[in-house]
């Protein structure tokens, strides 16, 4: 596979992942962190890091808006719930793997 095709496929997979996460608002970031070691905020940070590495202007706010499909504040207002004691415990236990 040539590099351009690989990049196109990777971009398509990333867009599909974002669509999936935008639809699954029931899955909290802390759940993602506990199970996978990354969350929506991580994805937005990685996107910003990639932009920075290429000298492209992308603010933290803009990268989060892209990942969440809305502003981070709006997403938190609409979908974020208070973490349960079990979620917080799981987060502390999984921290070394992040």
Automatic annotation (TrEMBL):
It holds the Pfam family DUF1244. Residues 27-92 form the SMc04008-like domain. Residues 78-98 are annotated as: Disordered. It comes from the Bacteria. Gene3D superfamilies: SMc04008-like. Coiled coil: none annotated. This is DUF1244 domain-containing protein. It comes from Microvirga terricola. The lineage of its organism: Bacteria, Pseudomonadati, Pseudomonadota, Alphaproteobacteria, Hyphomicrobiales.
């Amino acid at each position: 596979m040539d590099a351009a095709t690989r990049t196109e496929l990777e971009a398509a997979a990333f867009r599909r992942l974002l669509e999936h996460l935008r639809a699954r608002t029931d899955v909290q970031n802390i759940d993602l962190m506990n199970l996978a070691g990354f969350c929506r905020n991580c994805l937005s940070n990685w996107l910003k890091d990639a932009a920075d590495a290429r000298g492209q202007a992308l603010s933290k706010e803009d990268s989060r808006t892209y990942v969440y499909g809305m502003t981070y504040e709006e997403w938190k207002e609409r979908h974020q719930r208070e973490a349960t004691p079990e979620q917080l415990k799981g987060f502390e236990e999984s921290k070394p793997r992040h």
